Amino acid sequence: MDHFTVAIVGAGVSGAAIARRLSAYDIKVALVDREADVSFGTSKANSGIIHGGFHHSLRYLKAQLEIQGAGLYPQLHRELGFPYRRCGIVVAAFTNEELITAEHLYRQGVENDSAGIELCGADRIRELEPKLHQDVIGGVYAPAGGIIEPYRFVFALVENAEQNGLTVLRDFEVIDGSRTADRFTLHAGDGRRISADFVINAAGLYADELSRVFGAEQFTITPRKGEYHLLDRRTPACPRRVVFPVPTSVSKGMLVIPTVEGTVLLGPTADPLDDKEDLTTSRDRLSEIVASAQQLVPSVSASDIITSFSGLRPTLPDGDFMIRESDVVPGLIHVAGIQSPGLTAAPAVAEYVKDLLKSAGCTLTEKPRFSGHLPAVRRTRAMDDAELTTSWEANHDAGSVVCRCETVTREEIRDAIAAGHTTVDGIKFYCRASAGRCQGAFCIPRMLEIIAEETGAPVTAITKRGPGSGLVDRTLPGTPAVRTRRDRALRGERRAPRQTDAVIIGGGAAGMAAASELAARGFRPLVVDRERSLGGVLRQCVHNGFGIHEYNEELTGPEYAERYVDEVARADVQTLVDTTVLGIEHADGGFVTRLLSREGGLELVRSPAIALAMGSRERNRGGIQIPGSRPAGVMTAGAAQRLINVEGFVPGRRAVIIGSGDIGLIMARRFKLIGAEVEAVIEIQPVPSGINRNIVQCLDDFGIPLYLGHVVTAIHGRDRVSSVSVAPLENGVPRTDSAFEIECDTVLLSVGLIPENELSRPLGVELHRQTNGPLVDSRLMTTVPGVFASGNVLHIHDLVDFVAEESRRCGHSIADYLEHRDGIEEADLVAGSNVRYAVPGRIRVGEENRVYLRSMIARVGAMVEVRRGDDVVLREKQHHVQPSEMITITVDGAGLSPGDRVEVSVR
Amino acid sequence: MIAENQRLIRVRDTDDELTCIVCPIGCRLHARRLDDGSLEVTGNRCRRGVAYAEEEFSDPRRPVTGTCAVSGGEFFRLPVKSSKPVAVDDIPAFLNVMYELEFVAPVECGAVIATDIAGTGIDLIATMSMREEE
Question: What stretch of H or E contains A639?
Answer without folding.
Answer: helix A637-642
